[in-house]
Amino acid sequence: MTIEEKLALLEETMEMDAGSLKADMDLCDVEEYDSMSKLSIIVMLEDEFGIKLTSEVVRGFQTVQDILELMK
What we know:
By secondary structure, the protein is mainly alpha-helical.
């Protein structure tokens, strides 16, 4: 999966416009990154990649890149 495909999947998960996320963006600057989108990301990562996250890991996300690195 390419970076663009991963970004598109994150945008879809967070119900964002296509092309609005960049890997180097701070999540605190992403308006759509709220508690509901965090839950959606947790579910998406488990469904799509078999990754089970703890709340500690999710709280540690600082940038979009932090999430992308888990999407292998």
